[in-house]
Amino acid sequence: MRMAELSRESGVSVATIKYYQREGLLPPGELTSPNQARYGAAHIRRLKLVRALVEIGGLSVAAVREVLARIDESDASTHDVLGVVQQGLPGVRVDVDAADREWARSLIDTIAAERGWRLPPGSPVVESLIGVLCAFREIGHEWVLDALSCYAESADRVAAADIDAVARLGSTEAVVEGAVIGTVLGDALLATLRRVAHAEASRKRLGD
Amino acid sequence: MRMAELSRESGVSVATIKYYQREGLLPPGELTSPNQARYGAAHIRRLKLVRALVEIGGLSVAAVREVLARIDESDASTHDVLGVVQQGLPGVRVDVDAADREWARSLIDTIAAERGWRLPPGSPVVESLIGVLCAFREIGHEWVLDALSCYAESADRVAAADIDAVARLGSTEAVVEGAVIGTVLGDALLATLRRVAHAEASRKRLGD
Q1: Distance of residue B34 Cα from the nearest chain A Cα, in angstroms
Q2: For residue range B50-71, what is the model confidence (pLDDT) as tens digits?
Q3: How far apart are CA A129 and CA A141, in angstroms?
Q4: Choosing among B192, B203, B204, B208, which should be mutated to test the A contact, i.e. which has the most A CBs within 10 A?
């Protein structure tokens, strides 16, 4: 297909497709004349993935390039690729002092022991977790700790269901696209369901 | 205490305190001279609550005024007040066509039946849920439905733990402040724990 059709099929504008090509996120088409190229199904799949990473996942162009390079390495496992995707997702960045960090770190160690989590030190998600826990502490709302084990257990259940569901999608590209969408839209889904559940729990526990 | 001390104690600037007073979110102090007023512990509590509602919850001034009015009605239950708070929290607003709405509505009915949820029709959280489900559908990622029951069950567990924890905070003002902070920062906590759990589930399920 020609560029115009690639744009129609993928829902990505011609200008954006050309930008992705200049940035090395989309391989060139097969040249059929000095000014015309032909594109195939692989280009559509790649374009949809790039769009999900950039527009839904909020990854930088450099992070997308790294994810794609890993997908294209034949010996990278899907787990390796998902790890690179996760590193690129925007996280919580909060400055915390040494005492607060120590406090959060020891809570996280307790939860990790309960859940059998390995938690590579210095990983961005662990840094995000330290930031969120310290935000509760800073405004004097440590009561959340009463619910922390329940949060971690629920996160484990949801994450296992997520990985099971995306693993069924087949190709590494489809799994990666599903993981990005599932991570970002899944946050919104879980947050919204939690609000519904709050209303129900409040009625049962505090209503008349 | 004087205005300057109220500002120091509450961490809210004098200009913001005066703005809250003009908007009717903070009662006037007791006049000790035509130009000086005295404030007490009730002002500090109210100021902290207003700040949590505005800065963390993202409620409009009109929504905060309605929450405060409900708190000050002696016969409103904590459940009633939490309902008003929840209505004021920003939600997901997505335009969905009739067919997608029908599809989302029937999924939600199934989940509500599984969970024993009542779901008042037209409530903002149900509208948000319709919007999020349709967002998955629109980009062709209905696989999330495989995990939906698990998401809803986890939301119920977390919400019950949240309501138990904030109910212990005592006064309606403290419970409401806790609910706002728990809703908003709790979203960030759950999302971050889910990312940690994703890495662990990916390692167990897809790693080598």
Answers
A1: 35
A2: 988 888 788 889 989 988 988 8
A3: 16
A4: B192
- The SS3 of residue B176 is helix
* φ and ψ at residue A84, rounded to 5 degrees: -65, -40
Contact flag A147-B158 (C-beta cutoff 8 Å): yes
Assess whether pLDDT exceeds 70 at residue A169.
yes
**Nearest by CB: B154 against A141, A144, A157:** A157
Q: Please, are residues A134 and A101 in contact by the beta-carbon 8 Å criterion?
A: yes
The residue count for chain A = 208
With a CB cutoff of 8 Å and minimum separation 6, the contacts of A146 are B161, B164, B165, B168
Q: Which of B79, B144, B157 comes nearest A206 by C-beta?
A: B79
B51 contact partners, CB below 8 Å, separation of at least 6? B10, B11, B12
Which residues have a Cβ under 8 Å from the Cβ of A159 and sit 6 or more positions away?
B194, B197, B198, B200, B201
CA distances to A13, A68, B7, B11, B175 from A198, in Å: 41, 40, 33, 29, 13
Residue-wise pLDDT for B25-34, tens only, equals: 999 999 999 8
As a whole number, the mean pLDDT across chain B is: 89
Q: Taking CB atoms and an 8 Å cutoff, what residues of chain A touch B178?
A: 141, 143
- Domains of chain B, residue spans: 3-82, 91-152
The residues, any chain, with a CB within 8 Å of residue A2's CB and separated by 6 or more, are A36, A37, A38, A39
* C-alpha span between B202 and B204 (Å, rounded): 6
Partners of A158 on chain B (C-beta within 8 Å) are 147, 150-151, 154, 194, 197
Secondary structure letter of residue A36 according to DSSP = E
| Alpha-carbon Rg for chain A in angstroms | 21
User: B3-82 architecture in CATH?
Assistant: Orthogonal Bundle (1.10)
Q: In this predicted complex, what is the ipTM?
A: 0.86
Smallest CA–CA separation between B109 and chain A, in Å? 13
The pTM (predicted TM-score) of the whole model is: 0.85
